[in-house]
Structures are given as C-alpha cells and as structure tokens.
Amino acid sequence: MILRERLSEYIRACFTGLWIESHEHADALTEIARLCRDEQWHWATWDIESGLTLPGQAETPDAGGTDPLAAIRSVNALVTPEGTAILVLQNFHRFLQSAEIVQALSRQIIAGKQNRTILVILAPVVQIPTELEKMFVVIEHELPGREQLEQIARGIAVEEGELPDQPDLERLLDAASGLTRLEAENAYSLSLVRHSRLMPETVWDLKTQTLRNSGLLSLYRGSEDFSSLGGLEALKSFCRRSMLHTGRDNPLRRPRGVLLLGVPGTGKSAFAKALGRETGRPTLVLDVGSLLGSLVGQTEQNVRQALWIADAMAPCILFIDELEKALSGISGQGDSGVSSRLFGTILTWMNDHTSDVYLIATCNDISRLPPEISRAERFDAVVFLDLPGRQEKQLIWSQYLDIFQLDRDQRLPLDEEWTGAEIKACCRLAALLDVPLIQAAQNVVPVAVTAAESVERLRNWASGRCLSASQPGIYRQTGGTAKSRRRVSRDPSNN
Ligand SMILES: Nc1ncnc2c1ncn2[C@@H]1O[C@H](COP(=O)(O)OP(=O)(O)OP(=O)(O)O)[C@@H](O)[C@H]1O
Ligand SMILES: [Mg+2]
User: Fold this and answer.
1) Residue 331 lies in a domain
2) Which CATH number covers residue 322?
3) Contact by Cβ (8 Å): 388, 420
C-alpha cells in the first residue's frame, strides 16, 4: 500500500499520532498534500528553519516562529468545526529529548481525539520516547516501486531515443530499484550526460556506490557461476530448482533461502557469491559484523533500513556471511543487547517479508547460533558442506590445474583431509614457487587437522540435522577416523 493510502486509513480512523519514517521528505509532503487536497483536510507543516507554513500561502501565520513547543499547540489554530486538521512536524525527533515537549505532544495527541487534530512526525528514523510509544503508529515511506521509477525516467528522458524500449527498459528499472526517488533521478541524469540515453550500466554503477556509501549493504557483481565450483551438486540443484521454478508471483510459493553450514574452506562464501550470477539476480551483501562494530546504538535502525532496501530490490539475493559472528554477543553481555535485538529484527524480517528476496547465510559454528534461526520455515533448507569427496576433489583439482596452468600429468599429493580452499592454495603455491604439487603440498596444513575437534563436533551436529551439499538427502556422518575414511574413499584412478 502506498503512503497516501495508509495515511488516509489512519487519519480516517482518527489516529492522532503518526510517525512517518522517510528519507524523502519532499516526496512524503507531496503525498500528504495530495491526500489533504482530495479530502479537503486542513494541514500545515513545521520545521526548525521556516517555522509554521500553511500550504499555498506565502505568508506564514505567526505561531511562535521556530519554537517547537508553540508548534505543537499551533495545530489547534487549524481546527475547523467540521473538518480534520493535520500538522506535519519535520525532523521533530531532534526535539524529543525535552520533557516539556514530550509532555506537550502527549497532551496534544490525546486532545486531538476530541477536535480531530492529527500530529504527524516526519523523520528519517524512528526514535519514540517511552512515554509516547503507545501513542504513535509508525508508517514506513517505501522506496519507489517500478511504476514510479518508470515515471521518473519518463520525466527525465524526454528527447527521442533517450528512453530505452523493452526489454531494456525492464533492465533499467531492475537497476534503479532500491534507490530513492532523488537517487534514481541523479542516476538517470548522469546516464544522460554520459551516454545521451538511459543505460542500466550507469544506474548499476551509481547504485553500487550509493550502497557502499551507506555502509549498510554492498552489491556483489562477480563473474563466477556454479561452474566455478567443483562438486556441491545437491546444493546447486536445490537452489537452482527452488529459485528458477515458476509460480513466484504467489508469495507462499516463493523460495526463502538456505543456511550453509560447514567446515572452513569448503566453498560456502564462494557458493553464495556464485548464486547471483547463476540465477540472474543481483546479490546484496549485508555485513552485520561490521555494522555491529561501527554503529552501536543505531544498529537496528540500520539493519531495518538494509532489509528495506533489499525488499525494494527484489527479486534479489541477500547474502549474510558468517552469521554467527554477528550474533556473537547474543547470549553474552557487553553489547547491552544490541546483537540480540538485531537478531530479532532479522528473524522477524525472515518470517514476515513477502518480497522475493532469497536469503543465503553462511555459518561455521552452529553452537553460536540460537536454535530458532534454523527452525523450519525460516530457511528452505540448512545444508552442510563437508570436506569434498573423492570425485569432487578430482573436479576441483582439475579446475585449478587449468586455472593456474599447471602440468596435468603430475602426481597429486595426498589430499584426504583437504578442502577446496586447500586444493586451490596448493595449486597457487605450486604456480607461484614453480614447484611440483607434491612439494607445494608440504606448505599446506589442512584445517581438518588443525581444527580436528571442532570439525568433528560440527559433523556430529550436522549429522541427521542438515541436508548434504554433495548428495541428495540428509547428511549422515560416515563415521570413523581420518585413516579409515581414507581407505574407504580411496580412488584407484588417482595417482
Ligand atoms: N568446491 C570448490 N570448488 C572450487 N573452489 C572451491 C571449492 N571449495 C572452496 N573453493 C575455493 O576455496 C576458497 C575458499 O572458499 P570459501 O571462502 O568459499 O570458503 P568458506 O566455506 O566460506 O570458508 P570460511 O568458513 O572460512 O569462510 C575460495 O576461493 C573458493 O573458490
Ligand atoms: Mg566464508
């Protein structure tokens, strides 16, 4: 529902305290103005610089100028016997530290029920003091939808040939989704200056930059697809099938995402990065760890905003790497509950979002993840990536032998306990030092050896609980020590 429709509902139902969370005040005000004109409601705006302004009137009434207390009371002057009066207070969150102002707001919101006066706070954040929490309803001003982005494009590209035809127009709108109206306008204008027409590439560039500057999300655009990963066939086919099936228009049938659990170096992050290219969706990376570190206090707000952008960019992939790091403080102290609230925000979103956003999260240490994260419904599957099997290793070797241009006929080192990352590292070293693989292997210490206990614990946990990334069905630990596994999986064709 667009902002205007929701506002209209609340005002008709006489909710007298409304909080609009918006980064685009000009646009929100235009929507409010349109609504008030259609409904013949009286309205005014107030901000600290201009004081009270009545729309359509150059002269402002003297209602206390820039005094925020007087601003609250001035809404009563707008009242007419039969009508509704609305006062929009811009960036008023700045004044809510004052006890007097909180009191005045509270009184006015209650009184508003009698004389139908509505206070609307328009602010980029939601910071409602406890005393007022129950008095405000929050309305999010969504980012513009495709229709609106197209309108903006049509408004800017007015000369012949500037606006692309279908299907390029759709690609342009894909690129612009997730931008604010102003950002979209800027991106389109830049494209016109650079190429004399609207090009999706310019818009993508600018969006990548905008997201990076926001510090919330980054856009990953790599060239790898599933072919860059050896093995992991069950996982590949699960994601491909669930994401590319038809019927995505029905929110109930939309795929939600997967949680990848596994031994370090088995390709969890690499898989998540390849998924976008493979399925033709943009990949947004949410770095919750650094969000937590840098912005304590605003973290929840930022995460909410990031999820909001992801919703607007749908269909897309949202990638959260090393989820457990973000949640490390969840059971502990020291961050005054920030990470548990942040976690709550993510969980709620995972449950409630109806947008076509596919969440892919990775995790090395399930013991640090609270159990509710992997509950059925949150993800379509929790998948375990074990050390690659013999055939998978063969594929990975042959891929990296090619990439690093190494002699394909040389002997391969003993690699039973190796991950994909270790095979890659060995090939890289061999190329770097110009030595045979066997020699390079002496510098590779597999994580399954250095961290044997934690790898074993992980396997134990995953056994019977997770899907296997390599074979269809549930992962079962094959059991036994490294030696016995080696005997079982020995492939005579190797050597
Ligand atoms: N099956 C594989 N095929 C090809 N390359 C692989 C495979 N598994 C891992 N790699 C390579 O190993 C490197 C490390 O992988 P990646 O970072 O995805 O591991 P990870 O599981 O995310 O590890 P961590 O848990 O430490 O984050 C990457 O460069 C990746 O391309
Ligand atoms: Mg990783």
Assistant:
1) yes
2) 3.40.50.300
3) yes
